[in-house]
């Protein structure tokens, strides 16, 4: 048996207990002890909010795990800033690449540790909660733990298709500084499913966006809505809500190859009618593509208060520090004919800054949320899991192809791949799609992916044995 442990897993909450004054208002000269933080409902709510805030940092889902590193290794971009060309070449030992990989590993496990701090304390303090909050906080912490482990698995272990019985990552379920055993890929998948299924049942009846409530809106909140519970129940699409957990299960089951359960979960989200695909009439408004999608199609997302300056200007544009660029030739290839002319994404997701020569991704302009799970993915999962091209045609109709139906005997797998390449630009999902299906080479790319699908675990975070 081989063991691994990341050094910060055993810390008594690096985010909760120290160095956290950027999201929790604490005296930087002191540390918050668990018994103080968790003596009230507000403390639990703040701790949970802190996890989302940390996930939204550029080192994690606010950059590396969406629009940055993961889309670089997914070959979404034609070129990037000079310091990051090694990422496109899969040189995982290069300094900048190693830094990106390390921050994903460290960041996810740090957030997992804080999920575990909440879960370690919540049951014995159940009496401090008002109606429904205990269930919601516990469910979200548990589901986030599954979400974070799943992405670590997708990055740092072989795919389920390639090696379900291969050694994967530690699945950390408690606050400890003891060695944590490496599980196999299949075992980690089952742990993720167990956590998220349990969480989903726990939150089902109390989530305002869940099936127990007929309608839900994130517009027109009154002052008293923010006062009640400090606004905890507002903006459920910016959290891992009931349907976010259901959508996550659809993603995990498909990764496992369990198409029956993947389809069931995807259909539950679609049939809920709590989320809607964009209509052409909405595009005539002054709202940006990203804002329209966030209001209608995002199932779960992360709030980023400085999206323009802190994200778009960092990743997209001539003067950006990472300069993630898709050439016109690549765009023409991705969207094809007639998509280059009629696809709403090609028409609305890109921008040309004044005085610049290149067109860059602009899907995050005018929006303050980064998607974790979207309705469009549920249609793609449903199409793949069922073999029914009707799900794919519905998505295409809402992307400008209503007059271009799929051929009766179309290659459904090829059409789904084409939609993934268009739909998930700057979201970090394309690399995982290729890995799940074990692509030997990526579309239009000559590089052979053997060995490139598994990120190396940080050397200085591995102890007590050899990790393979």
UniProtKB/TrEMBL annotation:
Annotated SusD-like N-terminal domain residues: 22-204
Pfam family, one: SusD-like_3
Gene3D superfamilies: 1.25.40.390, 1.25.40.900, 2.20.20.130
Protein name, entry field: RagB/SusD family nutrient uptake outer membrane protein
Species of the source: Butyricimonas virosa
């Amino acid at each position: 048996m081989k063991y691994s442990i990341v050094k910060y897993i055993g810390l008594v909450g690096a985010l909760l207990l120290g160095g956290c004054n950027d999201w929790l208002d604490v005296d930087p000269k002191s540390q918050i002890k668990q018994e103080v933080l968790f003596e009230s409902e507000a403390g639990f709510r703040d701790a949970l909010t802190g996890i989302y805030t940390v996930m939204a940092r550029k080192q994690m889902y606010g950059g590396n795990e969406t629009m940055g590193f993961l889309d670089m290794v997914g070959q979404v971009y034609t070129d990037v800033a000079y310091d990051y060309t090694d990422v496109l070449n899969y040189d995982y030992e290069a300094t900048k690449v190693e830094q990106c990989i390390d921050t994903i590993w460290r960041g996810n496990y740090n957030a997992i540790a804080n999920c575990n701090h909440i879960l370690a304390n919540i049951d014995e303090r159940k009496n401090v909660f008002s109606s429904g909050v205990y269930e919601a906080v516990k469910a979200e912490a548990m589901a986030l733990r599954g979400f974070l482990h799943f992405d670590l698995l997708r990055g740092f272990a072989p795919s389920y298709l390639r090696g379900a019985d291969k050694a994967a990552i530690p699945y950390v379920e408690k606050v400890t500084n003891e060695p944590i055993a490496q599980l196999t890929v299949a075992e980690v998948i089952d742990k993720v499913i167990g956590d998220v299924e349990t969480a989903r049942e726990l939150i089902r009846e109390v989530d305002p966006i869940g099936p127990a409530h007929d309608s839900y809106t994130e517009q027109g909140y009154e002052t008293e809505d923010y006062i009640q519970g400090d606004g905890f129940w507002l903006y459920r699409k910016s959290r891992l809500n009931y349907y976010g957990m259901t959508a996550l299960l659809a993603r995990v089951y498909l990764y496992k190859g369990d198409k029956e359960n993947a389809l069931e979960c995807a259909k539950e989200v679609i049939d809920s009618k709590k989320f809607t695909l964009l209509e052409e009439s909405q595009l005539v408004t002054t709202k940006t593509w990203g804002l329209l999608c966030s209001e209608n199609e995002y199932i779960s997302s992360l709030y980023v208060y400085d999206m323009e300056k802190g994200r778009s200007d960092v990743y997209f544009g001539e003067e950006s520090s990472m300069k993630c660029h898709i050439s016109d030739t690549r765009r023409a290839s991705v969207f094809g004919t007639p998509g280059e002319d009629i696809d709403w994404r090609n028409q609305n997701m890109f921008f040309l800054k004044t005085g610049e020569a290149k067109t860059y991704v602009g899907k995050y302009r005018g929006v303050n949320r980064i998607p974790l799970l979207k309705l469009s993915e549920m249609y793609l999962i449903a199409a793949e899991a069922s073999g029914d091209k009707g799900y794919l045609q519905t998505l295409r109709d809402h992307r400008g192809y209503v007059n271009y139906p799929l051929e009766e005997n179309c290659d459904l797998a090829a059409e789904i791949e084409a939609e993934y390449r268009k739909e998930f630009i700057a979201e970090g999902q394309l690399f995982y799609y290729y890995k799940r299906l074990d692509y030997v080479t990526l579309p239009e790319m000559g590089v052979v992916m053997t060995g490139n699908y598994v990120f190396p675990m940080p050397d200085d975070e591995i102890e007590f044995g050899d990790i393979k």
